[in-house]
């Protein structure tokens, strides 16, 4: 273990270079331990084994808290073992106690890029360029090399959507494991799929606009026009139509205007200026 390039003993003298600076290049897992701590002695060989199995995708840094008491105090270590994961110069997550190996793997996989992630990124780029066959080949390679990559189902759903199989994509997203329930990427994808489904067989934008000019109460035309605008990236116009639909006809599509606005918020993310402005307008209209 002491000769592994993926495991290193850290002191106050080299902590900044190894952990802080090193975490800009790859994740650094810092194991705060002590010789008198029996759970530490149980955990350490398992962490070293994982460092080897992950093949350098993270560095394991060991800190003997008896010898480095000031360092342990600096990072708020109050119980042993405490394991902190550093990324981009900061501790971004931690666990305490000798967790079972599956839980430690789950902890690591939340932060450490997988070898197949590059293939999936290439597949998304291929899809964006319209090369669905190339995307399929890349996804199949990722599946063969790393079938446990949790992003695989999401990319598969994106490919279904890109191929026009909206119903199958919606069915697949509804069948995702519970762990995806609060995933922002899943929420955004679900919103895109719902808008794509809304315009299957729907008229083109000019016809829908003409229908609204003739009858502003045409809720179906307003919602379908908003869906068109979402899918071509005109989010402000889409939100304006969805807000108007919410004000005029809460019964249409079981409050489709409000639900549509929430779906667009998921697509854009919480920090977007449009989200802040239209969320406020939505709340004012509701209350």
Automatic annotation (TrEMBL):
<dbReference type="InterPro" id="IPR013766">
    <property type="entry name" value="Thioredoxin_domain"/>
</dbReference>
<dbReference type="Pfam" id="PF14561">
    <property type="entry name" value="TPR_20"/>
</dbReference>
<comment type="similarity">
    <text>Belongs to the thioredoxin family.</text>
</comment>
<dbReference type="GO" id="GO:0006950">
    <property type="term" value="P:response to stress"/>
</dbReference>
<dbReference type="InterPro" id="IPR036249">
    <property type="entry name" value="Thioredoxin-like_sf"/>
</dbReference>
<dbReference type="InterPro" id="IPR005746">
    <property type="entry name" value="Thioredoxin"/>
</dbReference>
<keyword id="KW-0249">Electron transport</keyword>
<dbReference type="GO" id="GO:0015035">
    <property type="term" value="F:protein-disulfide reductase activity"/>
</dbReference>
<dbReference type="Pfam" id="PF14559">
    <property type="entry name" value="TPR_19"/>
</dbReference>
<keyword id="KW-0813">Transport</keyword>
<dbReference type="InterPro" id="IPR017937">
    <property type="entry name" value="Thioredoxin_CS"/>
</dbReference>
<dbReference type="InterPro" id="IPR011990">
    <property type="entry name" value="TPR-like_helical_dom_sf"/>
</dbReference>
<feature type="domain" description="Thioredoxin">
    <location>
        <begin position="6"/>
        <end position="113"/>
    </location>
</feature>
<dbReference type="GO" id="GO:0005737">
    <property type="term" value="C:cytoplasm"/>
</dbReference>
<dbReference type="Pfam" id="PF00085">
    <property type="entry name" value="Thioredoxin"/>
</dbReference>
<keyword id="KW-1015">Disulfide bond</keyword>
<protein>
    <recommendedName>
        <fullName>Thioredoxin</fullName>
    </recommendedName>
</protein>
<keyword id="KW-0676">Redox-active center</keyword>
């Amino acid at each position: 273990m002491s000769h592994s390039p993926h495991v290193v003993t850290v002191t106050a003298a080299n902590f900044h270079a190894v952990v802080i600076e090193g975490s800009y290049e790859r994740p650094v897992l810092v194991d705060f331990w002590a010789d008198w701590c029996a759970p530490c002695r149980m955990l350490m060989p398992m962490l070293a084994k994982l460092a080897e199995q992950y093949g350098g995708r993270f560095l394991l840094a060991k800190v003997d808290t008896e010898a480095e008491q000031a360092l342990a105090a600096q990072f708020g270590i109050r119980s042993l073992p405490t394991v902190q994961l550093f990324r981009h110069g900061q501790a971004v997550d931690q666990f305490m106690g000798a967790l079972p190996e599956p839980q430690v793997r789950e902890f690591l996989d939340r932060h450490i890029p997988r070898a197949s992630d590059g293939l999936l990124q290439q597949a998304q780029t291929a899809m964006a360029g319209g090369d669905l066959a190339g995307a399929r080949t890349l996804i199949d390679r990722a599946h063969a090399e790393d079938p446990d990559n949790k992003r695989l189902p999401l990319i598969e759903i994106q490919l279904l959507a890109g191929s026009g199989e909206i119903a199958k994509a919606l069915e697949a997203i509804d069948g995702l494991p519970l762990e995806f329930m609060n995933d922002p990427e899943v929420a955004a994808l679900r919103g895109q799929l719902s808008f794509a489904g809304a315009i299957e067989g729907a008229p083109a934008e000019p016809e829908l606009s003409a229908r609204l000019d003739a009858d502003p109460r045409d809720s179906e035309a307003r919602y379908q026009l908003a869906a068109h605008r979402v899918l071509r990236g005109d989010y402000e116009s889409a939100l304006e139509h969805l807000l108007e639909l919410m004000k005029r006809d809460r019964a249409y599509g079981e409050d489709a205007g409000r639900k549509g606005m929430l779906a667009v918020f998921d697509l854009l993310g919480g920090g977007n200026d449009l989200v802040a402005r239209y969320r406020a307008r939505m709340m004012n209209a509701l209350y």
